[in-house]
UniProtKB/TrEMBL annotation:
Alphabetical list of InterPro entries matching this protein: Metal_Hydrolase, Pept_M19
Enzyme Commission number(s) from the entry: 3.4.13.19
Entries under Pfam families matching the protein: Peptidase_M19
Species per Swiss-Prot/TrEMBL record: Kwoniella bestiolae CBS 10118
Leading EC class: hydrolase
Family per record: Belongs to the metallo-dependent hydrolases superfamily. Peptidase M19 family.
Full protein name: Dipeptidase
Biological processes annotated in GO: proteolysis
Length: 376
């Protein structure tokens, strides 16, 4: 896979097609499946151990290895300035985004470590609920049938630890992504966030009714003088319109969102290599000029096209970075802990064998101590 990225990969994205499509930057998505997608019972409180966190770090390691192997074309970027630097060097800026807080293992410590590794947005949910937030579910299969998350949601929105997650993302300068989330999560995240939010790949629900698209009452909370975030397009057939999945229909979504917000709050994205069926005419990353041509045909100016194809997102990234810098000067990392965890120690010091250890570790220590006492 690593060498083939430079010569030709099956799917939607590789370097030759990215160059052909005029791609200047790409978020490589860090993603591992929701465990209930794999038939694993995560339990009502999402506490059953699994390998999701390990798999997340392995995904980042693979992506960074892939980028390093093609450093003649790709350049790692972790902020807006890094994207501009790559552009000046005539390279494609390569960034990390992450889809789903189910990959955090119920811990804010994980997102702090991931941010240090370069993750620059976190989608609060994927197609499953998590300890942090409720999901919209997702489309599946060739019929685009809607799947409701199989696990029970603790709330139709953010949980208490989910509120802390949004605040911590703001402090870290990591963008809060609301694609894939339930309407309740969207609304409550907008209530909490001190920084602009993004929708990394979503359409307008008024153009095509699907739970994965953004409803009007959420769009109306974004724009000038409101949350100054951005809604980025999606190219999945069943989110655009299964009966009219065309380039003009994609532009219908973007223009509708621009009318509800402004042309400063929309941008282009895809979900390439994350979907089974694409919009006609947008079969891979080489096709971006055809989509841009439709905006030009509809009268968008050169300046508006520049905003649409990158400047709007750069502005949001810079705003999020500034908020993070300010908040880090004002508050320390959040000490909040998911209150459903059962492995945590008590709050009272209990002597050398009652230390502040996770309860499962403490049980082993106590057992060994008792055996050692018997032997003595």
């Amino acid at each position: 896979m690593i060498p083939q990225l430079g010569t030709g990969l099956a799917g939607h994205f590789d370097i030759p097609r990215a160059k052909q499509g005029g791609v200047g930057g790409v978020f490589f998505t860090v993603w591992t499946p929701c465990q209930d997608q794999l038939g694993v019972d995560v339990g009502p409180d999402y506490l059953k151990p699994d390998n999701t966190v390990r798999d997340t770090y392995e995904s980042i390691d693979l992506i960074r290895t892939m980028i390093d192997a093609h450093d003649d074309t790709l350049k790692v970027a972790t902020n807006a300035q890094g994207i501009r630097d790559a552009f000046r060097e005539k390279k494609i800026a390569a960034l990390l985004g992450m889809e789903g807080s189910h990959m955090l293992g119920g811990s804010l410590s994980t997102i702090r470590t991931l941010a240090a590794l370069g993750v620059r947005y976190l989608t609060l949910t994927h197609v499953c609920h998590s300890p942090f937030a409720s999901s919209a579910g997702g489309g599946a299969g060739t019929d685009g049938s809607f799947i409701s998350p199989s696990s029970l949601s603790p709330t139709n929105g953010l949980t208490p630890i989910g509120v802390e997650l949004v605040r911590e993302l703001n402090r870290l300068g990591v963008m809060v992504d609301l694609s894939h989330t339930s309407d309740g999560t969207m609304s409550e995240a907008l209530d909490v966030s001190e920084a602009p939010v993004i929708f990394s790949h979503s359409g307008a629900r008024a153009v095509h009714h699907h739970p994965r698209n953004v409803p009007d009452h959420i769009l109306d909370r974004m724009g000038p003088g409101k949350n100054e975030g951005i809604i980025l397009s999606v190219l999945y057939k069943h989110f655009i319109d299964p009966n009219n999945a065309t380039i003009p229909r994609v532009v219908d979504h973007v223009e509708y969102i621009a009318q509800r917000t402004s042309k400063k709050h929309v941008g282009l994205s895809s979900d390439f290599d994350g979907m089974s069926e694409v919009v006609e005419g947008m079969e891979d990353t080489s096709k971006w000029p055809y989509l841009v041509a439709e905006f030009i045909r509809r009268g968008w100016t050169d300046d508006e096209i520049l905003d649409l194809t990158g400047r709007n997102l750069l502005r949001v990234m810079e705003d999020v970075e500034e908020v993070g810098k300010k908040l880090r000067s004002q508050r320390k990392p959040s000490p909040a802990i998911y209150d459903k965890r059962t492995d945590l120690p008590g709050t009272n010091w209990g002597g050398p064998h009652g230390a502040y250890l996770p309860m499962d570790v403490k049980a082993i220590v106590d057992k060994r101590a008792a055996r050692l006492t018997d032997e003595l």
